[in-house]
Structures are given as C-alpha cells and as structure tokens.
Amino acid sequence: MKLQELLKTIQTSFAIVGQHDLEILGITDDSRNVKAGDLFVAVKGNGFDGHRFIQSAIEKGAVAILSESVDKSISTTQIRVENTQSLLLSLALRFFGNPEQKMKLVGVTGTNGKTTVSTLIHDLLSGLGYTAGLIGTVSKRIGSEELESKLTTPGALELAHDLSRMAEAGCSHVIMEVSSHALKQNRVKGLDFSVALFTNLTRDHLDYHKTFKDYSSSKQLLFDSLSSESVAIVNADDKNYENMIAKTKATVWEVSLQKGSGAVVLKNDAEGLKIDLDGMLLNSPLSGIFNAYNIIQAYLACIALGANQHGLAMKLETCKGAAGRLEKIKLDVSNSYPFVFIDYAHTPDALENVSKTLKGIQKEGQDLIIVFGCGGNRDAGKRPLMAGIAEKYATKVLITSDNPRFESPELILDEIEKGLSQTANFKRITDRKKAIESIISESKSDDLILIAGKGHETYQEVEGIRYPMDDKLIATNALLKKYAQQTELTGKERF
Q1: Mind giving me the DSSP string for 153-173?
Q2: What φ, ψ does residue 363 adopt, rounded to 5°?
Q3: What residues does 217 pair with on adjacent strands?
Q4: Each residue of 125-154: pLDDT tens digit?
Q5: How far apart are CA 41 and CA 25, in angstroms?
Q6: Which class for 145: exposed (0-12), middle (13-18), buried (19 or more C-beta within 10 A)?
C-alpha cells in the first residue's frame, strides 16, 4: 500500500519529512521484526521506548518511520504524530483492507467472567450456524481453527492480522475479551463494537493501574467509544455499573437478579442452572450464581445480534463454557472418586465466587478442600485476602505455588499465610504438582476439591521460563492412580 494512502487513516494533525509516494510492504512496532519495505512505528511502551530502535529499524530496511519526534540526522521518510500507540491499530486495519468492517464485533470486559461469557457467545452463535471468531485468554478461534493465545487482548498489529484472517475465513461475528491493559494502551481504539458487555469490577491488576479508579476508568473506555447504534449489556447488580455507562451513547440493557428485572434462578446445583428470563427458560450445565449472570449476558448478546431466542435456549443446554472455569474433571471408569474442579480464580472476588458456589452444593459429610496460590510480581495485597476467603469456605486449605515468576515461592506463601487464622486447618506444599497429587490421594471419595488460580494454563512461570504444568492433567492422573489403587485393593477391577 502507498504511504500516502495509509496516512489517510490519521485523523489528527501530523508532519511528514521525506517522500510521500512510498510503497509500504508491512507495518511493525518491533525493530527485531523489520523487513525491507516496512513502516516502523516507534511506540513508547510500559518500560521501553521504540524510539531508541529507529536506527536499527532503518538498518534492517524500514523505508518510513512513524514517531513522536523527528530526527533531522535521518534521511529516511519520517512522520511525526502526537501519539503513535493510539494510531497503530487503525493503520494496521487500513493496511489489511479494514477487515473489521466486514464483521460484527462483540467486546466483553470486566474483572471476572470475560472468558466464560465470550466462549458462550461464540459457541451459541456457532451452534446456530454462524461462522464466528473468538479472541481471548484461553485461545483464539478462527472458524474451525484454534490457536494459542498469549494475551487476553492481542497487541494492535496482531489483532489487526487476526481480524484479517477471520474475515478471510468468512466470519460474520468476532467475540473478543477486552482487557483494561488493552483499553488503556489504545490497543482496540478505532474498533466499532456492535455489542459490548460489562460483567463486574473488583480488585485486580493494581500492579499496573496503581489505583482502582484508574482500573475502572480504563474499563469504561470501551463503553465511552460505543456509537448510538450499539448495545451495552451490563451487570446492574455490580456497584460500578453506572460509572461504566455514564458517557455511553449506546442503548443500555441491564441484567439483574436482585432488582426484579424478570430474571430468576429456579435451580442451581451440581448438575447446572435453570433460569427464568422473562418467561424464557434457560437451562445450562454450568453451576453457580455468577454463571447465571454470564449465561444471561451471553444469551442477550446473541439476541442483540439478531439470533433466534428459542434456538439460543436449545443450544445453551449443551454449551459447557470455557476451559478452566469451574471445569469438573470426570473419570469414565467410576463415579466413586472426589469431585475435582479446576478454576482460573486468581483474584479475591473470583475465589469467593467459586468457593461460595461449591459451598452451596456441598452435602453433609463432604469436605470442601481449596488448593490455591498467588502469582509473583503481581498485586501482593490480595494474597492474605485470598487466604481468608479460602479459610472462610473450606474444610481444609492447601496453599501452594502458582506462577512465582521472579519472586521467591516461599516468600509468596509466607504472605498468603498471614491471612490465615491461628486455628486454620491448612497445609503448605510449595511444589504445585505434589500438592495436587497429595490432596487427591488423601481425600475421601465424595469430597469436593477446588484447584484454583491457573485454570486453563498448561505451564508454570519461574524466573522468566515457562515449564510444563497442567492442573487438569495432574489432577486427572492423580484420580486415575487413586482409582487404580482402590480397585487393586478390592480386586474387583484392574487396568
């Protein structure tokens, strides 16, 4: 694409020094990836400044530089703008032929529930015959293809490329989780969302945002950007919801289980949920009141997109939600084993929600055992809070390592322990694999075990290296081993 054509995207004032009529073969903001004919965009990021690598980009073949200042010693064409990061996505989308205009976009934001809501919307639409794309924490789905996801919301260039591939694959809809980081960093600026959803807002990511106000304001940006033709679907039982929609131009649909809005939970147990939504019965295999909100919001999002409500209700009965979100591990060989749930809960609110859910289905004589840890180099203030929550709901608590990153696992556990009372029934095993194996081995056949914190993740990050670590796989193998030992003792069955 010609540079002058690409620059039509820029709506703010800019200055150009050098040739206008250049052929741009690619766009990148990483000097390591520059190829001959590229436009290099120098971005000031969190802890780095791309302007330092302009010379390196030129040496690798960049024919034009988009930056926030002009270096007169450089002969390469330069375009100066006020904020390069805010323009990155629109430039990339223009380069790929504006694929986002060929699809309806759905954005989901909030502290908890984003992945479940996004997955439900995707699976409901797909079940009704739409070709849908999904961008989120667990994975990306482009039609029938599933790809690994490294960030909840990709960087602007990766996002534009993903949207281009989705358009080429014939996707009519794209559902994406929109993180507070992405919103603050302008990674989704310029996208026109047909539907945006707010799940809830609780303490998280304060290592990055520093204050809850900044965290909340970043989430609000999604709704501030909506047009009058969009629909905003918000959890009206969350105390922050009015702030989210204070400046929105969109039509607002409120979801409430507390304000007499027509949504009533008729059943909530280990088998799933039954919800009466204004006379429409919604049945789901998911459990928990927090999942009732997720289900209703996903259902309404599809209604806003024009899907048939009766068809949606039928498809909902088979939608299992997202991997690692209160995911039950089942063995086909026997029903006599502990009930193990894997969940991504890594915030106080998320742990409270999932713990409360399991407490609600706990039967007399059953133990509720909670296994959890806290990530390193993240908000340390939540560590004792999560310990207190685990002790509040669990019969037994086992604290272990999560992703220690560059912190000492032992020191993290020390900080978690501060939140436990002197009478707490807890154990501490730093090695996560041994912790999971130990608790399953020691548990009774009908105990409820929650393994929280990592969910779908298949690694453990230590000192910058990701080692294989899959809670689901470890727990499944431990259950199989327990079953094999039990059947060997009874002599009734053998593998």
Answers
A1: S--HHHHHHHHHHHHHTT-SE
A2: -100, 165
A3: none
A4: 999 999 999 999 888 999 888 888 887 888
A5: 14
A6: exposed
